Structures are given as C-alpha cells and as structure tokens.
Amino acid sequence: MKHNCVQKKESGFTLVEAIIYVALFVLLSSLLVDSIVVLSKGYNDVRVNRDLLDSESVAVERMTRDIRGASSWVSGSASVFGTSPGKLTIKNPDSTTEVFQLVSGAVQLTDSTGYVSNLTGSQVSVNSLTFANISTTNGSAIKIDMSISSLRYSPSKTITISDTVVLRGSY
Question: Which end of the chain is less enclosed by CB atoms within 10 A, N or C?
Fold first, then answer.
C-alpha cells in the first residue's frame, strides 16, 4: 500500500508578505498625511494674507479717498500727528468733519453725525497708526503709516503700509 502524502497548501499571506504590505501602507499613509499638513498650512497662509490685505486696502483706500476730497485738516487736539495712536480730523467742503483714529486695535471712522465704523476686519489688529502733516505754500498733504497684524494664527504676520495723500481742496 502506497500512501499518498499530498500536503494541502494553505491560502493566505506569509509573514514576509504581510510586513511588506504594512510597510507600503505606512509609507503611503505618511505621504498622504504630510500632503494634508502642507496643504492646510498653505491654506492658512492664504487666509492670513487675505485678512491683512482686505483690511489694509479698505482702511487705506477710505482714508485716501476722504483725505483727498477734504478741504483741510483740523488742528489742535482734534488731530494728533507724529505719534501712534494718531488721530486725524478732516474738514470736508460741505463743512462736515470726519475723524480717523486707532481704537482698540481697529481703525475707526467717526462722521459728523457721530456714526462710528471700523475700517479694519475682526481678524486683524492695527499695531500703530501715525499721521504726519506736510504743509507747503502750494497745499497740504497727510502721510499715513500703519502697521497691521493678523490675529488668526501664531506666530502672527505683520505688514506695514505708508501712503501720502494731497488734500485737493487745500490748493
């Protein structure tokens, strides 16, 4: 009698195959997580830049437009030049006034009726706002210097803006 010694082959993975598959899975997972972290950081940087540029452009464009159309700036304690926080009070051709000043980290505009509006967004803080008076025999100009930081993430990003505006009504 002859016995057939046929061994049944077990189906499944060997230990070496399992280790290789796990290593590939770990490698691909780490690449995926790394990519997500890089994309998230890039997205956060874009949001911070957008916050800063939006607030900067709204505040500076509004101040520039209103100063350009003003007939004069109001002297005395109504305007504070050369120091931060600065304050600028302008007189418009229709005899109304507007006040630009730094209050609690925001650039505020107060009009003749007493209406107050923030010109900068809630995700930024204005660190400094300085006005300088430039007077010549031909007219007047106001120089604006502003430093603005993001509140969204740490460490915060800061930008500095300078602009000089001629009062058209002054010449």
Answer: N
Q: Which tens digits make up the pLDDT trace of 46-83?
A: 888 898 999 999 999 999 999 998 888 888 788 889 99
Which token pair is 162? 């300078």
Domain boundaries, the chain: 15-170
Kind of pairing between the strands at 72-73 and 87-91:
antiparallel
In angstroms, rounded to a whole number, what is the distance separating the alpha carbons of residues 112 and 98? 6
- pLDDT (tens digit per residue) in 97-148: 999 999 999 999 999 888 999 999 899 999 999 999 998 888 889 999 999 9
